[in-house]
Amino acid sequence: MNKEESINEKDDMQIDVHAPGNQQLNKDSHEFSFDYLKVYYGKLFPYSDIFRWMSYGNDGKHPACDESYFSRREFSFTLENDVYLRFQSFKSATDLENSIKEKCPSKIDIGPVYSVDPSKRHAYVQAGNNVFTPVERELVFDIDITEYDDIRYCCSGSDICLNCWPLMAIAIKVIDTALRDDFGFNHILWVYSGRRGVHCWVCDGRARRMSNEVRSSITDYFHVYKGSENGLKKASLTGLALHPFLARAYTDVLLDYFERTLIHNQKLFSVEDRYVKILDIIPDKSVASEIYEKWQGNKRSSTSEEGRWDQLKSMLQSGKHKGLRRCVEEIVFSYTFPRIDMEVSKHMNHLLKAPFCVHPKTGRVCVPIDPKHCDDFDPTFVPTLSLLLEELNAGGVRMDVENDWERTSLDQSIRFFRSSFLQPLMKSCKPNN
Amino acid sequence: MEIFRSQKKPTAEAASNLSLYRCAPSLEVRLDDFELYAIDRLRVLKGISNGLSRGKRPDEMETLVKELWRTNMRHPDVTQLINKDLISHFVLRLVYCRTDELRKWFLSMETTLFRYRFRLESPESQRMLMAEFQLPYKALNYVEYERVKDKLTQVSRSISQSSNVDTIFFKVPFEEVPELVANRRVFLLKGNAYVAMNQVASIVVSHFRSNLSKALVLTNSRKWTSTIREQEKDRLTPIVEALGSSYLGPDYSQPMEFTDISLKDIDQLANTSFPLCMRHLFNRGVGLNLENALAFWRAEFSQKVGSERFDKEYAYTVRHNYGKEGKRTDYTPYSCQKIISVTPSVGDHHGCPYRHFSEENLRAALSKMGVGGRAMDDVMDKVRNRHYQLACTMTFETIHAASCDSGINHPNQYFIQSRKLLEPKGQSLS
């Protein structure tokens, strides 16, 4: 299949790829096809960037370079017919590129670096215990919007829109800050997962070499939810004060988003079953029902959502009722605090989708997200396969660009990937570091 | 006789009696002592296990451990105290290295024992132990301390500890204190955890734990019996194996006082004396599970039902469960600890109901058993705090209107104590 055909086919379908704003991503399944994907892998996928990243400085001529390093990394491919190929490994960037072009995987996952080449693991089985074992792995996080279904009312399931994206922005801000300030990590990459969430890769040498136990401890550090009550995942806060990490998250991020964005976006205090859910968090039922009656009686009055929240806050913080001190915070945490998929982060051998893959359901590219500007990130404007091919086609045969992606919307993403992540990382990577 | 305590020579004053058990002692040990010491230590570990499942608070645990150690680990010859500690520890290593399950239990109990013994040491010897673990942590100096002191106070308030201005803090790479990080019990800044002196135990303990964990795996994989002389092997193997099978309290594989159980009584017994986990298993109504339950109880109590008849009727289940015939004596009843630690998959009906039931289902089940009102709230409270065995104990106490000081540690124990209360001695069930 050549490029012309694919573009023509797309034109026939008359896709309005520039449709703005609130469209729901899952409906865009016509954004994806394996023919498009072939062109994408042929012209746009940044192989050399992925290779340089995954080599961590071991691709040079320096004598201290570990030449086997990249080839001990596991890649996994999901093929068109849903065949899943695990334990793929590659000697070089070219090797990686050829294999991806040949197999055209709908998904590429990245696993750990093993003690030995994972594609030859069977040869080591006889050699004795535990020869084949993961030795390095980025600390990774996976946050899915589906985890927030009990507190978002705009979408459900895999859908995501600008009204619930702030929940992702909060997660990025809270976790990014803690990873840098608390844990001292510097090389952090945030990536849109292509449909319903975000991935995070922490790539410092120190992070890559952590044991599973330490990974678990960081995951737990980020965890405040204690089971669910009345269909709400409830944050549980104890003690006389909040831990500095939680206090900072609360004052710098959570409260602000809750009051300025989510109350309004999700209509938390204007729809009865929604505010009832919030009132349910209050352990003192007499207080909860007092407020409930007030708001019920006030139906026709113009008490705004913000007004109701203020009422609730002042009631809970008045000090008249014992045991409610933490309640305002618990409400805000329950409705804003990041909900990471803990299992993904706890073990070295958990696979995670590679950046710059294309999500087969939405056709969107898994592009990096700038944590500093994650508020401005619009998942509905992430380049799709068909958009990229159209741009590629419209550019004609320009000779003044080195790479094809420079003629597409991917240009911005790859530039950001290099300047904000890859280059600083390379600088820090002395061989074997 | 030579005592191999550690690489470091203990100085007379500060020398602590707490060993890190790095090397097995090269001592001559009398065969009797070999076994007796091990049993004494087992009593300590068992007591700790009970304390933990009773949900004792740290300060109560400290008292308990002190007491257990004092009563069980004494020796008429004071110079032998350390040897007894070492010998018993290493003997139990042999016993408990053999399966994942055993290792997990031993590791957990020995670590707990170590933690509280460490806490009881003087600050001076605590520091020496830190040095033995090669933990060269520097205390924060005044300038550093001033810079972060507000945060440190905030942390201690967040874990409801009074902050003591005199406390010494250490700056430690966060990787070294996963436990403290996981529970947000330390302040973190740029990859360092700020650990208070009273939390140092956590560091030392986690080193102890990981060393012991590795050592146990190693002991097992080395097949200790192959490394000792043939005649030793013959002498020691039976002892080690016997110690292993008696590891959890009373031996429930022996015929009990309440052996007059016939199949027709089981219905009635289930209503009065089965713990909730067994009622559940039994009452789910599916044929196979009924059989499972019967097989279970048969193996434990019904020697007199008639093995032959039982085998005829339930041989399929037995075969199914054990893979082959004649293996049934290996059907070791699960202790609460084991039941709680197993997560039943969908469609399974075993597991600890206090842990695995939804709150609603548990309430329903409990009220069926006759638990209500305040008692219900108390039980649910224990459940919420994950003290499942305590919840079961309270259920027992409510239903039987009697106290159960030992706590419930085993479904069979529940049953036996129930029978003891419900029927005067000697009277048969039917």
Outline:
By secondary structure, chain A is α+β, with helices and mostly antiparallel strands. Chain A has helices at 3-13, 34-43, 47-55, 93-103, 165-182, 205-208, 212-221, 244-265, 272-279, 285-297, 305-317, 327-336, 342-346, 385-394, 410-428; strands at 73-78, 84-88, 107-114, 134-136, 139-144, 188-192, 197-202, 225-229, 232-235, 352-353, 368-369.
SSE topology sketch:
The complex is a heterodimer of chains A (433) and B (430).
Chain A: H1 3-13, H2 34-43, H3 47-55, E1 73-78, E2 84-88, H4 93-103, E3 107-114, E4 134-136, E5 139-144, H5 165-182, E6 188-192, E7 197-202, H6 205-208, H7 212-221, E8 225-229, E9 232-235, H8 244-265, H9 272-279, H10 285-297, H11 305-317, H12 327-336, H13 342-346, E10 352-353, E11 368-369, H14 385-394, H15 410-428
Antiparallel strand pairs in A: 1-2, 1-3, 3-4, 3-10, 5-7, 6-7, 6-11, 8-9
Chain B: H1 31-53, H2 58-72, H3 81-96, H4 100-120, H5 123-132, H6 142-158, E1 169-173, H7 178-182, E2 187-189, E3 192-196, H8 200-221, H9 230-245, H10 266-273, H11 276-283, H12 287-301, H13 307-322, H14 336-341, H15 353-356, H16 359-369, H17 373-384, H18 388-400, H19 411-422
Helix pairs in contact in B: 1-2, 1-3, 1-4, 1-9, 2-4, 3-4, 3-9, 4-8, 11-12, 12-13, 17-18
